[in-house]
């Protein structure tokens, strides 16, 4: 569906309580002025449409007799005006009707350019029952001035990909119901307070800011935390060990990898790349049976790659590039699928990989016999399985042919006819081209 919602019949149906016109090609007024007379309206979903435009200062709107109200008659509970792509038709202001809303529970105004606008702390002050607020990619700037008060219901806050600066207010970590917090891709600075994660938090995203300070493993009482993303900051200290999604890349961690990190059930990805970690790779990583991605590249790790890691059957992405590892690369199970880019930058690491090594190897060349043994043991094709599957396929083909001939008399006669013709042709070929005694040059065909 398409068209300007300003001219839609929906603007004259004043009994509507819910309007959902999302995922269409409508042109929607950002001020919602066409619906100011809908006193019963509670829910408005208009996200992912063709265009969201501002009309609060347009003359043609002021001239419409239907929309003379400066304040809406409705009190919304749910509002979604977010766009799936960046919308640059709005410039610098939140819609004025939001200042008159006091019952909002869910608000999503994502991907709408509000350049110059600050974080709308007044929205939280006016709506004490607000549970979810999404302001993703709205060009918000300035400090992050959360009002000093307790919001007992707020469980989701996403103000990522903006230009917010300053420190993260300390009392945000004391919100009793906050489960998901995303402030990534801003210019927030300062240090994280000790024990900043509450016991109820599930996901925290603070990547690509200017955060600094030291992280210690004993500051986090949360047992429900599954994802903590602090990548691309200036943090140091010791990584945590209680997460199922772990991204601390591009920081300044310089300790050894704590082996306790492998005792977290259900961990699916671990990214410690671009740090200063030292020591060896814990063999206890073999306990991470659900892990799918493991990135330890660009650190100062030494020692060998534990052979126990070959038991990680779900591992689809692996990198230990640019460390100081030595020994032989695993070439069994899923490790046979990783190319040389997973190991490059380790001059003392010997890898038999489908790709050529990234630099000169300091290990002595292997003998031809050893290469032959490695090829047999690390082949991509299991020959026993290959022979077994070939035999089963051959038997199935024979059984299929026999079944068809048994069921269909016509094809049975045709089959035996061609068999007889073939035998006769072979006989005469032999008689004509080979020296055969005359007494054998008689063929009697009996039907």
TrEMBL record:
Transmembrane parts of this sequence: 386-407, 414-431
Official protein name in the record: Uncharacterized protein
Keyword Repeat: yes
Statement: the UniProt record of this protein carries the keyword Glycoprotein: yes
Lineage: Eukaryota, Viridiplantae, Streptophyta, Embryophyta, Tracheophyta
Keywords, sorted A to Z: Glycoprotein, Leucine-rich repeat, Membrane, Repeat, Signal, Transmembrane, Transmembrane helix
Top-rank taxon, per record: Eukaryota
UniProt membrane topology term: Single-pass membrane protein
Subcellular location: Membrane
GO cellular component, as recorded: membrane
Family listed: Belongs to the RLP family.
């Amino acid at each position: 569906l398409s068209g300007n919602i300003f001219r839609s019949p929906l603007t004259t149906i004043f009994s509507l309580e819910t309007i959902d016109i999302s995922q269409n090609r409508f042109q929607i007024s950002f001020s919602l002025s066409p619906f100011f007379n809908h006193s019963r309206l509670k829910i408005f979903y208009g996200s992912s449409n063709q265009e969201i435009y501002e009309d609060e200062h347009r003359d043609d709107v002021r001239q419409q007799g239907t929309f003379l109200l400066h304040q809406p008659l409705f009190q919304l509970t749910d509002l979604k005006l977010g766009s799936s792509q960046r919308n640059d038709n709005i410039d610098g202001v939140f819609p004025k009707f939001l200042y008159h809303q006091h019952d909002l529970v869910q608000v999503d105004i994502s991907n709408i350019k509000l350049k110059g606008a600050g974080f709308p702390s007044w929205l939280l002050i006016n709506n004490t029952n607000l549970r979810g607020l999404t302001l993703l990619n709205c060009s918000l700037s300035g400090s992050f001035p959360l009002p000093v008060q307790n919001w007992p219901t707020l469980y989701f806050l996403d103000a990522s990909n903006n230009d917010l600066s300053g420190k993260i207010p300390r009392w945000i970590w004391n919100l009793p119901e906050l489960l998901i917090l995303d402030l990534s891709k801003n210019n927030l600075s300062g240090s994280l307070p000790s024990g900043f994660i509450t016991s109820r938090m599930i996901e925290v995203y603070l990547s690509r800011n200017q955060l600094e300070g030291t992280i210690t493993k004993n500051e986090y009482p949360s047992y429900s935390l599954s994802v903590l993303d602090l990548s691309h900051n200036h943090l140091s200290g010791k990584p945590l060990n209680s997460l199922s999604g772990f991204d601390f890349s591009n920081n300044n961690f310089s300790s050894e990898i704590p082996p306790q990190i492998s005792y977290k059930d259900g961990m699916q990805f671990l990214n410690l790349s671009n740090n200063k970690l030292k020591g060896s790779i814990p063999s206890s990583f073999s306990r991470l049976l659900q892990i799918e991605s493991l990135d330890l590249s660009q650190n100062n790790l030494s020692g060998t790659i534990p052979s126990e890691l070959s038991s990680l059957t779900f591992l689809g992405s692996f990198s230990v590039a640019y460390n100081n590892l030595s020994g032989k690369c695993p070439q069994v199970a899923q490790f046979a699928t990783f190319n040389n880019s997973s190991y490059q930058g380790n001059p003392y690491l010997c890898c038999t990989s489908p790709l050529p090594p990234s630099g000169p190897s300091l290990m002595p060349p292997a003998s031809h016999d050893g290469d032959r043994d490695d090829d047999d043991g690390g082949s991509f094709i299991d020959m026993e399985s290959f022979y077994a599957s070939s035999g089963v396929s051959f038997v199935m083909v024979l059984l299929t042919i026999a079944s068809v001939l048994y069921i269909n008399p016509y094809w049975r006669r045709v089959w035996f006819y061609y068999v007889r013709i073939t035998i006769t042709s072979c006989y005469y070929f032999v008689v004509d081209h080979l020296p055969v005694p005359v007494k054998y040059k008689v063929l009697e065909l009996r039907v």
